[in-house]
Amino acid sequence: MSIIIDEELCTGCASCMESCIYGAIELDNNIAFVLPNCNLCGACVEVCPEEAISLDRDDVKAQKIDISQFKGVWVVAEHYKKKIHNVSLQLLCKGRELADLLQVNLSLVILGTDFDDKLEEFSLYGMDEIIYIKSPILKDYYSDLYTKVITELVLENKPEIILIGATPTGRDFAPRVAKRLSAGLTADCTGLEINLETRNLLQTRPTYGGAIMATIRTPSSRPQMATVRAGIFKMPEKVKKNVNIRKLEYEFKEKDSVLKIVKVISKTRNSVNLEDAKFIVAGGRGVGSKEKFRIIEELAEVLDAELGGSRITVELNWLDPDRQIGQTGKTVSPKLYIACGISGAIQHLVGMQNSGIIVAINKDPNAPIFNWAHYGIVGDLHEIIPALIEEIKKTKSEQ
Ligand SMILES: Cc1cc2nc3c(=O)[nH]c(=O)nc-3n(C[C@H](O)[C@H](O)[C@H](O)COP(=O)(O)OP(=O)(O)OC[C@H]3O[C@@H](n4cnc5c(N)ncnc54)[C@H](O)[C@@H]3O)c2cc1C
Fold first, then answer.
1. Does 86 lie in the same domain as 50?
2. What is the domain range of residue 148?
3. Which of 6, 198, 231, 378 could pair covalently with 333 via S-S, beta carbons 3.0-4.6 A apart?
């Protein structure tokens, strides 16, 4: 892959130099040339008013596609035991908003085998259409079959946006589909908006270790694909409306899959479901030690809340890894989030900032968490939490 500059078309306007965040383009005799530190991001290609710059890719034969042919927003459903995963429902809620802005249909794409009796229930989640791909083999998840079917469906139907849960399954097939379609894919988005003028999806996600938020768009390819973790968007309200159901029976041949699922082993360990928790009490380094974490557990117990924490508490072995909240942990959106001794680093905030009510307890009045908290208590958590627990117990006993 390389950047090609057509010297006859280049006018030396320097737009490409300004667009290059790596400083990898310079002018020589008023003609642009590319330096070795170019990372082939293609930003210069887009800004050149003379169309003098192109990205020569071996895998995509620089085909210009007519993006106006692509219409519609799709959510690919993830499911388990005949239930749709919450992240797919949350994507339907966001997808509805995007589809209304773009004035197109919202479709739920579901691959499986025994959903005939569930489609009516699913149709309450606000989509205009359900595309149900039915095949006995799809009772289990096969990455190559998902990739094949979704790619074929996209080529035939041309949706402009595809939203997928950033679960292990979604993270497995989404890039495979994107590669086959030469489409852009942004992983782990925390925000999705539309630029109505260009119909580009503005996909926001943390980058450089969470130090900044980047907004990514894929202006010259379609569909625009994004994965999103559970808890980022709201659950949809149930609505009764006419939903078009397209059932497509698929027959697969043995050669369609290099995989063979021999046995499915269910996880036996009680896993924590922080994503669905209504109340969470989370502790940070300010708690002080593993032993002192007991006070956080006690507050969680009296509130019937789940226990969570910052990454440092996991690294210090005060808390199990599946209770870590943040960029490299879980994304949560409980009704109530109590942050105890947590400073409010961006990597923590991206995992909990959508909580309904955030209460922060911190002895530093300038801790960044207070910029996000609806209620803040400045003081030593070891004095405040016991008093809180006592008060909650008293209130409960009076009820
Ligand atoms: C790539 C990357 C990914 C990351 N992913 C995550 C992630 O998923 N989740 C995550 O949480 N972090 C993550 N981090 C780490 C993050 O940057 C912060 O270091 C971390 O969130 C800080 O944890 P903390 O708030 O518990 O600790 P600190 O920042 O040390 O804050 C402790 C707070 O406790 C307060 N305090 C101290 N004693 C008391 C007391 N007695 N009473 C009340 N308050 C007290 C202090 O004033 C302070 O504000 C990541 C970092 C990187 C680089």
1. no
2. 67-253
3. 231
